[in-house]
Amino acid sequence: MEEWEEDDQPSYIDKLSPDEMKRLIQEEKEELEQYYSLAKSIKENSKAEALLIALEKGFEKLRMLGANEKAVIFTESRRTQMYLREFLERNGYAGKIVLFNGENQDEQAKQIYEQWLEKHRHDDKITGSKTADMRAALVEYFKEQASIMIATESASEGINLQLCSLVVNYDLPWNPQRIEQRIGRCHRYGQKHDVVVINFLNCKNEADKKVYEILSEKFKLFEGVFGSSDEVLGSLESGVDFEKRIQQIYQTCRTAEEIEQAFKNLQAELDEQIQLKMKETRMHLLENFDDEVREKLRDHYHQTSLHLNRMERYLWNLSKYEGAREAIFDDETLSFVKDHETYQMISQAKKQNSPNVHHFRFSHPLAQKWIEQAKSRELLPKEITFRYSDYKGKVSILERLIGKEGWLSLDLLHVQSLESEQHLIFSAIDTEGGQLDQEMCEKMFELPAVEGEEVEISDSIRNTLRRISEGQQEAILNEIMERASAYLDSELEKLEKWLQDLKNKLEKDIDEMTVEIEHLKREAKLTRNLAEKLEKNKQIKELEKKRNEMRRNLYDQQDEIDEQKDRLFEEVEKKLEQRTSTEHLFTIKWRIV
User: Ranges for the Helicase C-terminal domain (predicted)?
Assistant: First the structure.
């Protein structure tokens, strides 16, 4: 919903007269009722039946490849997910299925999680984050016990499913980037078998066939070579924009000819967009990367490279410094040996199954020890020379600082309200009095550096850095207030909409019941049979009783929402009760060469 912003252009509906609107609404109501009757008449789910055939053929292919007989089935909703589990369990897959979604709150998931915690209570797999550990537990269960994982879109990112080489897109999304993410869970470096991808497609629907044609031929999503779609997908600014175009075609085209023409136009636009974007990207690479970096890109294009995210990189560098006397570090493999034990950064350790390798991460006791050791050290004011010339990459915002020097101070701001927040506040100036922004300061600490002698800080420099820090602290506190205000507005709007929806529904039901009561009263007056008259009056009393209950229910719902508003106000008031403290970490005299 957040990605899909509606256009502000007026629709044709705005131009209709009230009578035309009423007629169209009535026609749509009748059409929807026909769909409802048709849906109720369907006794067999042919798509689910086809899934059984797909799994049978898919597993047969996996046996030929010598791969694990495991499949991940992607759906668009939890309701479909639950239905498929029940259907497959009735058809030979009982006890072989695990669900994976954004909530993971079903009884099976809870049981798997508890067993996983018990199993790993003595090793370092437990991170302490319930969400991360729940995901790890479900993936491990899939690996060791289940044959089928039925997953929603939440499984398309952040988990490694290369133990599986059969992907079933039961619901095929229109967004090519989402499809790429799904397949990428299994089709990744380290996968030992070809990944079989089964897509469900309604061949009787002309538009569905055209969508699949574009996804397959233009975006090359189902090619045999890994990464063949990367270049093409990189040209898309947003898969959501592509989805919007498809949605527009579905809404406006009514004949096979219209659909054909609309998709031809879309394909022509995509061809031009893809070629232009690829040309621009190549140009930027050649203009902005130096020769050494370009050579490395060429050398490693078809190879796996060791990769750490920003926080892991910080941990690795800190560990090398703090553990220099205790361990032997190897940058090539991102591992180190301490007391005859081997530790490896978690990103790389996941690729190994050796029980002799410890997974090194932030939550590991050794990492915590080194972090606390670093935090407890007193940092004296010193001169630090940052060597941009030794840096392997390019940081454009720092290039103008080469050859310059100045002062930098770092403070840690603690903000305690309903939630606890911490913010690192850099205050920095150069010798000409120019102020450096937060991003510049952070990027500076990515560079190799040499520690110099201890330096004296004049009172004027201290005062200047303190004023900058206080200004940034005030800006952060204001931003927290703005967030609290936006949160309050958003939550109040949700409650108001909820109340209005309830009110509209109940009022509609009450109005319908009132009409029915009036109708029964007229019938009761006209009937001469005493028994029938008594029966109708009894029905009237029952309906009036129900109507009164519905009215009371409306008042109860209003009271409940008012209570929720009160709780919301209390929550926001606590956020406003900010307690702040500032801890000075260090001051340095910096120079970039």
Answer: 54-233
Assign residue 92 a region (left: φ > 0; alpha: ψ between -120 and 50; beta: otherwise). Answer: left
- The pLDDT value recorded for residue 166 is 92
The residue among 135, 169, 143 whose CA lies nearest residue 69 is 143
Domain finish residue from 334, 353, 375: 375
In this structure, the answer to whether residues 354 and 407 fall within a common structural domain is no
221 contacts 236 by C-beta, under 8 angstroms? no
Query: 323 and 437 share a domain?
Result: no
Residue 76: C-alpha distances to residues 42, 79, 93 (Å): 21, 9, 21
For residues 357 and 13, the model is more confident at: 357
Helices (H) and strands (E) in the chain, counts: 18, 15
Q: Are residues 348 and 486 in the same domain?
A: no
Of the candidates 42, 36, 47, the residue with the CA atom closest to the CA atom of residue 87: 47
312-320: average pLDDT: 88
- Number of structural domains in the chain: 3
Residues 366 and 389 in one domain: no
What is the domain range of residue 314? 310-375
Q: In this predicted structure, what is the pLDDT of residue 39?
A: 87
pLDDT tens column, 44-101: 888 999 999 999 999 988 888 888 899 999 998 888 999 999 999 999 999 999 999 9
Ranges of beta strands (E only) in 401-547 are 405-416, 420-430, 435-436, 449-454
pLDDT band at 10 (very low <50, low <70, confident <90, very high): low
Same domain, 256 and 110: yes
Closest to 46 in 3D by CA, of 202, 213, 207, 210: 202
Q: Amino acid identity, residue 25?
A: I
Whether residue 345 is predicted with pLDDT greater than 70 in this model: the reply is: yes
DSSP states along 345-406 = EHHHHTT---TTEEEE-TTSHHHHHHHHHHHHS----EEEEE-GGG-SS--HHHHTTTT-EE
* pTM listed for this prediction: 0.47
353 falls within a domain: yes
Residues 281 and 404 in one domain: no
Rounded Cα gap, residues 379 and 75, in angstroms: 54
138-189 pLDDT tens trace = 999 999 999 999 999 888 777 889 889 899 999 888 887 788 888 888 887 7
**What does DSSP say about strands 357-360 and 97-100: parallel, antiparallel, or unpaired?**
unpaired
- Token readout for 188 is 């990744």
Q: Are residues 102 and 139 in the same domain?
A: yes
Please tell me the predicted confidence (pLDDT) of residue 449: 92
Q: Is residue 303 part of a domain?
A: no
